[in-house]
Design a protein that fits this description.
Number of helices: 21
Number of strands: 27
Helix content: 25-40%
Largest sheet: 8 strands, mixed
Strand order of the largest sheet: 15-14-13-16-23-18-24-21
Number of domains: 3
CATH topology of the largest domain: Spore Coat Polysaccharide Biosynthesis Protein SpsA, Chain A
Structural class: alpha/beta
Length: 637
């Protein structure tokens, strides 16, 4: 627009660099001839309002005026220096700036009141002097009309994309907040709660570029309405492209402008910590929402948009400003249909660690482990070896395919070795492998996909069983060639080859039970832990592996473990059976503990556990796959 044809706006406010009117001034100057008029803020108010961090100069207005300026005199004194206004616009800034005799102005007069949730009484009195009243807080529009104000319209606060922009910096804080915090307020209590939960919180009183920098350095911005106000922070934080976590002020219009979990995040006081944690650990979801929110506010919620609507109403006969629904429609133009975040399809789920206990130091044992390492040369993943003897460690500790290892002086047993491997692992997917296993990439990839795609999967493998809790035996076994053509729920997955999630161990949902050292019962125990945590075990029909059953088929084989321990397979099974019952019957509380003394009778092996066996029977009845029962002489693993 030619400047000579542009409307002349006398913009009235108390000058200080971070007040809302400055944003209006910046936007209006793009299309109008703007003349600022009013006083400027003094040192006492800067101190009272804690504005010391403005770090920007307080400038004189184009037309410096006192707080009680008489507009009759102003018109006379300004006649020679400034063009007559086409619109007089007063914007709330510092209380006390109330020019008198506004009726002397021979042009439309408009006011913009912002903090009606705090100052309603004087707002409605002052607004009666204007031809047009614009209210930032929608809830109070009816109050202005009820008190006789003319042409009352809702005009929300907004953002300035040039100032409230994403800065090129790394994320340093979990949660950022910029604003006032008064002692014993709800806002103070919520911020304290976030801090106590050990989120990396940065709360500051900063402005403009420094505020945008803090927002940009934060993974999310916390917002809290003082009294059901739709405040500036909502639009400013979203404009920086940082995820906004805010409460939902009632009757504010926020819920009509923006949708929870699509454009921003909404918390209730009781769910604040849960919501913050949810979005902090879900980077892709959080950033998707933040990017969408940024696009929306830039599309329809800048001060340029607000000024355009204000001018349309005051100077061009438009009857009213847009409704919340109309603002939302404008903000969605060009955004496409990806409203809800959905995980991106991955060629493969997250990276993998292979944990391999190596016990057998014999020539045959070393040969088999060497062949497994050869297989892993063509399979990407972190290889972790737990050497249960100095002899085998000496042979393999420098092998190029082994990334991490632990060299032990004695055989610590299966569950302890697995736990050591879990502690060393760095990848989300954990594979437990026997050292005598042979496998191909296709089997690894199939189990990995199943682990991350099957509902609530915690443990997946190619073989497993339903087991009898009291009979302490497999009652339905699924082996490699059992004919199952789809993933099958089971009680336990066999331990020679399975995949699980490292996160479940980090969160203490799963842990291999050291008390079963050196072996037996650890897989059943893991299955019960998974069920207790709300997770599931599956067998997956893969066949690109080979494994020969070993120690569990030789009941009289002697196993040495620890510094001086030794026992036969049969003896270990008997001891761990009691340990298994002792642990889980104590937790379930259904029966008394099994006797600890060896001469006392064992619990009736034919009694069923109502808690566990009913679930097993239910799964058996729903199973439509071909199943194979174990042979009578096969010992449980």
């Amino acid at each position: 627009m030619e400047q000579s044809c542009a409307p002349v706006i006398w913009l009235a406010y108390v000058s200080y660099p971070v007040t809302t009117a400055v944003y209006f001034e910046r936007a209006l100057r793009q299309t109008c001839r703007v003349i600022t008029c009013g006083p400027k803020i003094g040192p006492e108010i800067i101190e009272q309002w804690h504005l010391e961090n403005m770090k920007l100069p307080v400038l004189d207005q184009d037309m410096p005026l006192p707080f009680d300026a008489d507009m009759r005199e102003v018109l006379v004194s300004a006649k020679e220096r400034f063009p007559a206004p086409d619109l007089y616009l007063w914007i709330e800034s510092v209380p006390g700036y109330f020019p008198t005799h506004l009726e002397a102005l021979n042009c439309p007069k408009a006011c913009y009141v912002i903090d009606s949730h705090l100052s309603l009484e004087w707002h409605v009195k002052w607004a009666k002097l204007f031809d047009y009243v614009f209210v930032a807080q929608r809830e109070y529009v009816p109050e202005f009309r009820r008190h006789g104000c003319r042409n009352v319209h809702w005009l929300p606060l907004a953002c300035d994309p040039e100032i409230h922009s994403r800065k090129n910096c790394a994320k340093k804080y979990d949660i950022g907040f910029v604003g006032s915090v008064f002692a014993h307020s709800r806002r103070a209590e919520l911020l304290e709660r976030l801090g106590k939960k050990r989120f990396l919180l940065r709360a500051d009183r900063s402005f403009w570029d420094e505020m945008a920098l803090l927002f940009s350095q934060s993974r999310m911005v916390f917002n809290n309405a003082v009294r059901n106000d739709l405040n500036m922070r909502v639009f400013e934080a979203m404009s920086t492209g940082t995820f906004l976590l805010t409460d939902l002020p009632s009757n504010s219009g926020q819920d009509e402008l923006f949708v929870d979990a699509e454009d921003l995040g909404i918390y209730e006081d009781k769910t604040l910590i849960e919501k913050a944690r949810h979005y902090l650990i879900r980077d892709e979801e959080r950033e998707h929402i933040a990017h969408r929110g940024q696009a929306m506010v830039h599309q329809a919620h800048t001060y340029a948009h607000r000024c355009a609507e204000l001018l349309q109403v005051c100077l061009r006969g438009q009857k009213t400003t847009p409704s919340a629904g109309e603002w939302r429609e404008r903000s969605l133009v060009g955004l496409g249909s990806d409203r809800k975040w959905t995980p991106k399809a991955q060629a493969l789920p997250p990276g993998r660690s292979f944990i391999i206990p190596v016990i057998d130091a014999s020539e045959e044992g070393r040969r088999e482990f060497g062949l497994l390492l050869d297989d892993l040369k063509t399979i990407e993943g972190e290889v972790i070896a737990i050497f249960n003897s100095p002899e085998v460690a000496a042979v393999f500790k420098d092998h190029p395919r082994i990334d991490l290892s632990a060299s032990l002086n004695v055989n610590v047993g299966v569950p302890r070795a697995w736990n050591i491997g879990v502690h060393l692992a760095t990848q989300p997917t954990l594979f437990i492998l026997n050292a005598d296993l042979r496998l191909n990439l296709s089997a690894v990839e199939a189990l990995q996909r199943a682990l991350w795609e099957l509902p609530s999967a915690a443990v997946v493998g190619p073989e497993g069983s339903f087991f009898g809790f009291y009979t302490y035996e497999d009652i339905l076994w699924f082996h490699k060639n059992c004919g199952v053509s789809a993933p099958q729920l089971v009680d336990a997955v066999s331990g020679f080859f399975f995949a699980t999630k490292r996160d479940l161990f980090c969160r203490k949902i799963l842990q291999f039970e050291n008390d079963y050292t050196p072996c037996f019962s650890e897989e059943w125990d893991l299955g019960i832990q998974a069920r207790q945590g709300g997770y599931r075990c599956y067998i997956v029909p893969v066949k690109d592996y080979s494994h020969e059953w070993g120690v569990s088929t030789k009941p009289d084989k002697l196993i040495r473990y620890g510094k001086n321990g030794e026992a036969t397979v049969r003896e270990i099974l008997a001891r761990n059976r009691n340990q298994f019952w002792r642990k889980w019957l104590t937790i379930s509380g259904e029966l008394e503990l099994p006797p600890r003394e060896p001469n006392e009778p064992n619990p009736n092996p034919l009694r069923g556990s109502a808690l566990l066996q009913s679930q097993i029977i239910e799964m058996m009845h729903s199973n439509q796959s071909k199943t194979v029962r174990p042979s009578a002489e096969k010992e449980p693993r």
